[in-house]
Design goal:
Length: 360
C-alpha cells in the first residue's frame, strides 16, 4: 500500500514521465499528420499509406518506452513494478522490430514507385525490384533474429544459460551447419541471386522444360508462373546449378520463327513479298527484323523459314500465330499446287504382255 508521503515523493517523477509520453505522442502525431498532408498535396498515395501503416508501431514504441523509462528512474518500482518492467522491455523490442519492418517495407514501396515493371522496356525496373524485394526479405529475417535474441537475453536465466553454452558453441555450430546444409545452401543461393541477378522478376525463362515468367524470388526458392497458370517451384540452389534459358536477360526483344513446308514448285519470291505485306498490317511486329529463307530441302518438301522480331515473348507468340495463319491462307488461294504432296510414278515392267494379248 502506497502511503501519502511515498505518493508525494514519486509525484514529480510520475508527472515527468507522463509529460515525456504525452509530448512524444503529440509530436509523433503532428509529424505524421504533416507528412500525410504533404503526401496528399504531392499525390503520393503510397507515401500516405505507408505513414498510416507506421502510426501504430511508432505509438506502441512510445508507449512501452515510457514504461521502461519510468522503471529506470530512482524509486521507479512504484511507477512500474518489476513484472511490468520485464513485459515493457519485451514489448518495446517487439514494437521496435515491428516499426523497422514496416519502415523498410514503406521505403521499398516508395523506391519502386519510380520503377514501373508493367512497361514494355522494363529491364532496369525489374532489376531494381528484384534486388529490393530480396534484400527486404534478408533485412526482415535479420531484424526478427536480432529481436528474438534481445528478448531472450533480457531474461537473466536465459542469459546465464547462454553464457554456459559458449564453450560448446563451436561444436553446436558444426552440427547445425551439417544438419541444415541444404537449407543454408538455398539461403546463400538466394542472396547470390539477388546480387548477381541471373534472373529477375518478370523474366521470361524456360526451366525444367517449362516456359513461363519469374513471379517471385525468395531466399530459398523461385516461383515460375507457367503460361497455363501453373506454378513451378524451383529451389534457389537449382537455379544456380542447372542451366536454363532466360529470354529477357539483357532485353525483352525477341526473334520469332515460322516454318512452312511446301512443294518444290513453290514460288519463294512470292512468299517473301507476301510476308512483308503480312507483317506491315500486323500490330505485333516491331518493324525491326523481316527475313524469309529456304532453310532446308527434304526428299518431299522445301522448308521455308520466316524470321521476324517483336517487343517481347508474348507478343512474339501472337505474331508467329498470325503470320503462320496468313501464309497458309495465301498458299491455299494463290498457290494450291505448292502445298505439300506425295508423288507416285507407276511404270510398266519390260516383260509385261501387250494389252491385246491379255485374255479377257
Amino acid at each position: 500500500m502506497i502511503t501519502l508521503a511515498e505518493l508525494v515523493q514519486i509525484l514529480p517523477e510520475f508527472l515527468t514521465v507522463s509529460a515525456v509520453a504525452v509530448s512524444g505522442i503529440w509530436l509523433t502525431q503532428i509529424l505524421l499528420r504533416t507528412l500525410r498532408g504533404y503526401a496528399d498535396e504531392a499525390g503520393e498515395a503510397v507515401l500516405r499509406e505507408g505513414l498510416t501503416a507506421l502510426r501504430t508501431p511508432l505509438l506502441a514504441c512510445l508507449l512501452w518506452a515510457t514504461v521502461v523509462i519510468a522503471s529506470s528512474i530512482p524509486d521507479g518500482d512504484y511507477l512500474a513494478p518489476e513484472p511490468l518492467r520485464r513485459v515493457a522491455v519485451v514489448a518495446l523490442i517487439a514494437a521496435a522490430a515491428w516499426a523497422c519492418i514496416r519502415g523498410s517495407r514503406v521505403a521499398m514501396q516508395l523506391i519502386l514507385t519510380d520503377f514501373d515493371v508493367s512497361q514494355k522496356d522494363n529491364l532496369v525496373s525489374r532489376k531494381m525490384a528484384t534486388q529490393l524485394r530480396v534484400l527486404h526479405r534478408i533485412f526482415v529475417t535479420v531484424v526478427i533474429i536480432v529481436a528474438g535474441a534481445m528478448i531472450l537475453m533480457s531474461f537473466d536465466s536465459v542469459k546465464r544459460i547462454g553464457l554456459s553454452l559458449l564453450a560448446s558453441a563451436g561444436v553446436a555450430g558444426i552440427v547445425i551447419g551439417l544438419a541444415a546444409q541444404k537449407v543454408l545452401g538455398n539461403v546463400l543461393a538466394g542472396i547470390q541471386l539477388a546480387i548477381a541477378q541471373p534472373i529477375r522478376l518478370d523474366d521470361v525463362v524456360i526451366m525444367e522444360g517449362e516456359w513461363g515468367w519469374i513471379e517471385e524470388i525468395t531466399l530459398t526458392y523461385v516461383v515460375v508462373r507457367i503460361w497455363d497458370k501453373r506454378r513451378l517451384i524451383v529451389p534457389s540452389s537449382c537455379v544456380l546449378e542447372k542451366p536454363f534459358q532466360n529470354w529477357t536477360r539483357t532485353s525483352a526483344e525477341i526473334l520469332g520463327t515460322v516454318f512452312i513446308y511446301c512443294d518444290y514448285t513453290v514460288d519463294v519470291t512470292a512468299i517473301r513479298a507476301e510476308v512483308g505485306k503480312i507483317l506491315e498490317r500486323c500490330p505485333h511486329w516491331d518493324g525491326q527484323v523481316n527475313n524469309t529463307q529456304v532453310t532446308n530441302a527434304t526428299a518431299q518438301t522445301l522448308e521455308v523459314r520466316v524470321l521476324m522480331s517483336a517487343a517481347d515473348s508474348p507478343t512474339a507468340w501472337n505474331l508467329r500465330v498470325f503470320v503462320r495463319e496468313e501464309i497458309v491462307k495465301f498458299l491455299q488461294h494463290e498457290f494450291p499446287e505448292a502445298l505439300p504432296r506425295t508423288r507416285v510414278e507407276l511404270k510398266s515392267p519390260d516383260h509385261a504382255f501387250p494389252p491385246e494379248s491379255i485374255p479377257i
